[in-house]
């Protein structure tokens, strides 16, 4: 089905992505192999991330906030879908009105039991964003040196609300006019130009052309005189049981399809949107040591056109056959500067940012490589691996904890990364650092992509991992003793 020069797969009320496109200003196909064509003139929708700005969410407001966050994602999905239709109709003003209503509902729910977060009300307006700008678009970042903390952990400043407000609360009328101007141009050009769903050929790079940029693989234990050099590895399989859903129990608990993309799970067998701590603690596990922790990440798909008509898949613009990992390795390692302390049971941590293409790379933590080449790490490119080499995704989680909270309003403020030297910020203490490493056998070529929100265009920089610690206390104590004692345990 061709609309305005863009091929769309429609099914189940959602946009099924990985479409072909036309060059801006004419309908001459772009030069590109296979099923995709690409041009830098494509645009997507960029909205302020309300979830990132949440600070305190009372228990009484949790379900309302979860429903609101899921609704905001669906609203952007629908607006992006409409924009891709190529009619040139205004989508930004209706989207702003929808978001105003949803955000107001969330603010009202939160304000019943804590200070009213009025600053969220200023986050309803969205803009259009050129696809060839921003996170994941630049080639130079892909080969940036990573020894300065990309995998050991970035010292990401938390808070700074006032400055963020100033950046986000620009003159909204100006933003809306900019978006309308871009949409008008889009309509004159005969529809949305550029890729309709991604990924782009520019999102891939031959690993042989990447210079080594990591002194040690991102899963290696820290070394040095004061380091806690041990490791603890938990074996939980590679999801042979087929535990998939499009929920996100950390960000949108109590809401089905809250992730709007499909997650791959190992560990706790009960994990879905409705899993509370009691349910997780009572569940069986795929881990062979009794570890009931939950580990999940977006699935990787083979771009073969397989369109499963269900939430999280084709109905949310994720098309292709789900790839089962070849291996999954879950390792906890120590601190560069001293011993680690046990993390509390039911602590929740997310790493990376599913919206990093439009949000920017502040919270991005993607790591892509190939087996045999893991001294070459990519954060905004998919690796093209030589024959016999597997694609590798690695998530090195935050390794500093505030010592009080097992979660926070935006699911980030209670944990952070150590600095370049391995030291935690003031008020934080070192905890075992989880490293999730997943490998895949993929077909040769530009043949795979990670699940994403439609407007994120399946960019590799949006990759992310999630973890809920449900280790029994005795097992966590064993892990800490092994790490601090310099032993490698399972």
Question: How would you explain this protein's 3D organization?
Answer:
There is one protein chain. The chain is of the alpha+beta class and 490 residues long. It is 19% helix and 18% strand. The protein has helices at 50-53, 62-84, 92-111, 161-168, 172-188, 277-281, 356-359, 473-484, and strands at 2-3, 6-7, 9-11, 14-16, 43-46, 127-130, 204-206, 231-234, 244-245, 263-267, 294-298, 300-302, 321-322, 327-333, 348-352, 368-370, 382-384, 391-396, 400-401, 415-416, 429-430, 433-440, 448-450, 464-468, 488-489. The strands form 8 sheets. The protein has a 6-stranded mixed sheet with strand order 16-18-22-14-8-25. A hairpin with a 2-residue loop joins strand 1 and strand 2. Helix 2 (62-84) runs antiparallel to helix 3. The longest helix has 23 residues, at 62-84. Residues 1-41 and 133-196 have low confidence and may be disordered.
Please describe the biggest sheet, giving its number of strands, its sense, and whether it closes into a barrel: 6 strands, mixed
Radius of gyration, taken over Cα atoms and rounded to an integer in Å = 22 Å
Strand content: 15-25%
Mean pLDDT: 83
User: Which structural class is indicated by helix and strand composition?
Assistant: alpha+beta
Count of beta strands: 25
- Lateral arrangement of strands in the main beta sheet: 16-18-22-14-8-25
Assign a percent range to the helix content.
10-25%
Shape: globular
- Helix tally equals 8
Question: How many angstroms does the end-to-end distance come to?
Answer: 53 Å
Query: Which regions contain 5 or more consecutive residues with pLDDT less than 50?
Result: 1-41, 133-196
